[in-house]
Write a structure and sequence with these properties.
With about 650 residues, the chain is of the alpha/beta class. The protein folds into 3 domains: about 40-55 and about 210-340 and about 380-395, 3-Layer(aba) Sandwich (Rossmann fold); about 60-210 and about 345-360, no CATH class; about 435-643, no CATH class. It has helices at about 5-15, 20-30, 60-75, 90-95, 100-125, 125-135, 135-145, 155-165, 180, 185-205, 210-225, 235-250, 265-275, 310-320, 345-360, 380-395, 405-410, 420-425, 475-485, 495-505, 510-515, 520-540, 545-560, 570-590, 605-610, 610-620, 630-635, and strands at about 50-55, 230-235, 255-260, 285, 300-305, 330-340, 435-440, 445-450, 460-465, 490-495, 635-640. Helix 13 (about 265-275) links the parallel strand 3 and strand 4. Helix 3 runs antiparallel to helix 5. The two termini are about 45 Å apart. The relative contact order is 0.09.
């Protein structure tokens, strides 16, 4: 995916993202502290962060070995990343990428990803890298790891190379593959070269000391001098088992709980021990990232990253387990590891993490950008912390804000359009206002409408940039347009005949605007309904069924009419139509296999083939045609720009 496509995807996701950030909630608490207390009357507020750094004191020999491992990883071709058929995704073809460029991207990606798994495993622990190389069972045996079980063993890249050697992938590209991906003998030789490289890496990792793991364990033990409960996270469960074993060797009277996504882990015990109000003491919770989302562990006052989070999202999810509004602590400590350069996260590895997510969503044939440097600089721990704190401040998750953030910014902060005192004054007004209309001077006519959502729906915003312009309904875009039209130089105008005339013209466009607010499926349903009803009316006329003709023609007129005083309830109309056609839809959906998704237009002929039944259903469902109240009831607020 290109950066532009990622930005488009991010904007679409943001439209459906509703979240209150810590900054927003703390602001609400400061404004009305009496409304935010717990059951004991204690003031609720998110705790303040104290980012801290701990060193790992790697010996010089370990650093030399780590560098040798990195150098060997650069020699891998990534043969295990070419198991499935090699074919070019249609989206890349549409973007104009050539098959040769795609193939080169896949080759580069395989090398980068193979290296990434080695270095990220090494950063976690010796055990994590050994597990990657020879599998879970071998890692347990070689490193004498006790009390570690996994429902499904993982790793064993050496075993996978042995299984695929001599069996190159199928090629659906129109260009030739390199010999080692096309010829079975050459493929076997390439797999054997990768296996030899992994074997050399295994020899080196077995020569590493356990200093890094011991330093992590001793740091956790040391934190118990100032904290009753400590949480620690690492992405690899086998590393947690090693850390627990070391803690139990190094300290007495310390409880250690390991909680992962595995069924045999102590997940329930961790949730009980670290829940709000827990009286447990001198306990260390070792958690995998499967426990980093949706679990409240706020009785802990310190959190430790045992491995460096590659993206801000991971760090945010981990810290979020203790960073709760009802935390009993005023401050929480978040500890970050300072890896030696030979072990440290590099800039390209942070980039790869993003593309691994994309790959899991879009398939294994997505290449990494070839612009990535072969050798990237280590990332400073301070830089990772700065990125995390900055994202926490602006309240964005991987660049995605709350859908209502642009609306809040209209009434908050230094760039708000509504002064805080004015907003506060009107926020508590309980008097019912049917509709509020404001008129402002403008170079060209424009209008903003806030429409009621009914008894249960949320209000809807519509902005028309001109008398013929396309309606804007996305909140962020509406807010942006309001900022453009409402500046310090904007003057208010009286509501006179000219203003009333302009308002009427815009009201006549509400039908089109409100219809555009419907989900795309319902918009298509209305279009199909109009086509089908017209054909049914023709058939009824040919059969001399005048009563049916009259009713169906009335329905068509309602679908075509554009009067603000008699506007159809498009959401209800579309909903009724979908209810009518649902039996036919499901019948075709569960029928013969289809090569593409079933569209509403695909069932048109089948519906018309059941004309008498369909006509009866329509006449029954639309005895009364659903219409909306008049604009004086639906429009709760309106701003009209008059030239």
């Amino acid at each position: 995916m290109t950066e532009r496509e990622i930005e488009t995807l991010r904007n679409e996701i943001q439209r459906f993202t509703v979240r209150r950030t810590k900054k927003v909630l703390n602001g609400l608490i400061e404004r009305e502290p009496e409304h935010y207390v717990d059951k004991d009357g204690r003031q609720c507020r998110f705790p303040r962060h104290k980012p801290m750094v701990y060193t790992l004191d790697e010996p010089g020999n370990d650093r030399e070995l780590a560098q040798q491992i990195r150098d060997l990883a650069d020699q891998l071709v990534g043969a295990t990343h070419f198991v499935q058929t090699i074919e070019m995704p249609e989206i890349l073809r549409q973007q104009g990428m050539s098959e040769q460029s795609f193939l080169q991207g896949r080759l580069n990606s395989a090398k980068k990803l193979a290296r990434y798994v080695v270095t990220s495993s090494l950063r976690s622990s010796r055990a994590a890298l050994v597990e990657h190389l020879v599998g879970t069972h071998q890692a347990i045996e070689r490193l004498s790891i006790s009390r570690f079980k996994k429902s499904n063993a993982t790793g064993d890249v050496l075993g996978q190379l042995g299984r695929i050697a001599g069996s190159p992938p199928k090629n659906r590209l129109g260009v030739a593959l390199p010999d080692w991906l096309a010829d079975p003998i050459a493929h076997k030789a390439a797999c054997e070269r990768d296996a030899a490289t992994y074997g050399a890496i295994l020899d080196l990792v077995m020569r590493l000391s356990d200093q890094r793991e011991r330093r992590k364990a001793s740091h956790l033990i040391g934190l118990l001098k100032t904290h009753q409960l400590v949480l620690a996270f690492d992405g690899r469960p086998i590393t947690l088992a090693v850390i627990r074993q070391l803690i139990e060797e190094m300290a007495d009277k310390v409880s250690v709980i390991v909680a992962t996504g595995d069924a045999d882990s102590e997940r329930a015990s961790a949730m009980e021990t670290f829940r709000l109000g827990s009286a447990k003491k001198r306990t260390i919770g070792l958690c995998s990232d499967s426990l980093s989302e949706g679990v409240n562990l706020q009785q802990a006052s310190a959190l430790v990253h045992l491995d460096m989070p590659t993206v801000v999202r991971i760090a945010e999810q981990r810290v979020g387990r203790v960073d709760r509004m009802d935390s009993p602590h005023e401050f929480i400590e978040a500890w970050w590891p300072e890896d030696a350069p030979e072990f440290a996260l590099s800039t390209d590895e942070r980039f790869i993490e993003r593309y691994e997510t994309v790959e899991s969503l879009l398939g294994s044939n997505m290449p990494l950008p070839d612009t990535m440097q072969r050798h990237a600089a280590p990332v400073r721990t301070e830089k990772v912390i700065e990125d995390f704190e900055r994202q926490a401040e602006i309240g964005a998750w991987d660049g995605i804000q709350d859908a209502f953030e642009p609306v809040r910014q209209l009434v908050q902060g230094s760039t708000g359009l509504v002064p805080p005192d004015v907003y506060e004054r009107y926020r508590h007004v309980s008097a019912r206002v049917l509709s509020r209309v404001s008129v402002v001077r403008s170079k060209a006519p424009w209008a903003f409408f806030c429409l009621t959502g009914g008894s249960f729906g949320a209000p809807r915003w519509i902005l028309l940039t001109s008398l013929k312009g396309k309606p804007i309904t996305e909140l962020g875009a509406v807010c942006g347009a309001l900022r453009e039209h409402l500046t310090e130089e904007t003057d208010n105008l009286p509501f006179d005949e000219r203003s009333a005339s302009v308002l009427t013209e815009f009201l006549n466009r509400l039908d089109e605007a409100e219809r555009s607010l419907l989900p795309r499926r319902k918009q298509r349903a209305l279009e199909e309904m109009r086509i089908v009803v017209e054909k049914l009316a023709d058939d009824a006329g040919a059969a001399s069924k005048q009563q049916d003709v009259d009713h169906l023609v009335n329905i068509m007129e309602m679908l075509d009419r554009k009067l603000p005083s008699y506007q159809p309830d498009w959401d209800e109309v579309a909903g009724r139509w979908l209810d009518v056609i649902r039996p036919v839809w499901f019948e075709m959906l569960t029928g013969r296999k289809r090569s593409r998704p079933l569209l509403l237009k695909d069932i048109r002929n089948e519906l018309l083939a059941r004309g008498p039944w369909l006509t009866g259903e329509i006449l029954h469902r639309f005895r009364e045609f659903p219409v909306l109240p008049g604009p004086e009831e639906r429009v709760k607020a309106c701003i009209v720009g008059v030239s």
